[in-house]
From TrEMBL:
Gene3D superfamilies: Ribonuclease H-like superfamily/Ribonuclease H. GO terms for biological process: DNA integration; DNA transposition. Residues 72-143 form the Transposase Tc1-like domain. It holds the Pfam family DDE_3. Residues 154-296 form the Tc1-like transposase DDE domain. This is Uncharacterized protein. It is found in: Nucleus.
Length: 343
């Protein structure tokens, strides 16, 4: 139920009814329930009646409200039906010939009073109905899995790290009129200053290698990583019995790479598409970002050296915490009916 905005305004007849009801013995709290207002308003009306020896309807101070309560409800309804609607869109949808047109600022104020504030939306992958069903099914199958079941699983992924600047929005606090002062500028270079692409993996017992990807990552580059980076590490640390996880990127699922997995008899973990929130390595990339926050690199080689050193310094307690979150991740996907979750 949408609560009314502001205090309730009473007509002279309503005020007289309140006074008459009190004279007949009705308690102010009962009157407040009957007239859908607070008890304090009833007490003020009764006090006003005593002080002025009669009920007087005073005009409310300040400018009259542009919007009626019905329009306030329509504004909230329009926003809740589509949170992406702008104040201009809402203005067009709620305006009627019999009421004044509310300004966009008024609409924003009404929404803010109701607790609806403008924010940048979090970016999550678009998940189709088919993939939502697959995600829920996978989550149900693995909901009860614990450390024993996830033992000897290799989690893998690629990620890009910028050498200079950021792909996101940056904010800065500065005095008025100082927009172009050097200390308040965000220096940029062409193409964002370059970036370093890496591939990495880990298991429940050890951090795997971090491999730099030079040039375009295609099926042949990926096969080389599997053959000369992942497989030697896996056999040295996990023996011959392990399960490999990868997402459904086309280069991962190509026939060329599938033949490599068959030749080497690698067991693959079935993986639902569009499911980075189920993969704990995504949070490992965030951990790597945090460890290098504020650290600058003058070139790609230096950047990779920083990444590799930070990767090797991540303790296994971080890995254990991420793997312990798997039941919660599965439950979150089930509760969200396959839509992206907070993870």
């Amino acid at each position: 139920m949408v609560r009314p905005f502001g205090k309730k305004s009473f007509s002279v007849d309503e005020r007289k009814s309140i006074v008459r009801g009190h004279e007949l013995g009705a308690h102010p709290k009962i009157l407040a329930t009957q007239f859908s207002c607070s008890s304090s308003q009833i007490y003020r009306i009764l006090k006003k009646n005593r002080d002025d020896n009669g009920v007087v309807h005073r005009q409310s101070p300040g400018r009259p409200r542009t919007t009626s309560r019905n329009m306030d409800r329509n504004i909230l309804r329009a926003c809740r039906e589509d949170p992406r609607r702008t104040s201009t869109d809402i203005q067009l949808s709620v305006t009627s010939p019999n009421e004044p047109v509310p300004s966009r600022r008024t609409i924003r104020r009404r929404l803010q009073v109701a607790g609806l504030h403008g924010r940048r939306p979090v970016k999550k992958p678009l998940v189709s109905l088919k993939n939502r069903k697959a995600r829920v099914e996978w989550a149900k199958q693995h909901l009860s899995w614990g450390p024993r079941e996830w033992a000897n699983h290799i989690w893998s992924d690629e990620s890009k790290f910028n050498m200079f600047g950021t792909d996101g929005i940056q904010w800065i606090r500065r005095p008025i009129g100082s927009r172009y002062a050097p200390q308040y500028q965000c220096p940029t270079v062409k193409h964002g200053g370059g970036s370093v692409m890496v591939w990495g993996c880990f298991s429940d017992t050890s951090m795997g290698p971090l491999k730099r990807i030079v040039g375009t990552m295609d099926r042949y580059v990926y096969e080389d990583i599997l053959e000369n980076t992942m497989r030697p590490w896996a056999r040295a640390n996990l023996g011959r019995s392990w399960v490999f996880q990868q997402d459904n990127d086309p280069k991962h699922t190509s026939g060329h790479v599938a033949n490599w997995f068959r030749r080497h008899r690698v067991n693959l973990l079935e993986w639902p598409s569009q499911s980075p929130d189920l993969n704990p390595i995504e949070h490992m990339w965030e951990e790597l970002e945090r460890r290098l926050k504020g650290v600058r690199a003058s070139n790609a080689n230096q950047k990779f050296a920083q990444l590799e050193a930070a990767w090797k310094s991540i303790p296994m307690t971080v890995v254990q915490t991420l793997l312990e979150s798997m039941p919660r991740r599965c439950k979150a996907v089930i509760d969200a009916k396959g839509y992206p979750t907070k993870y």
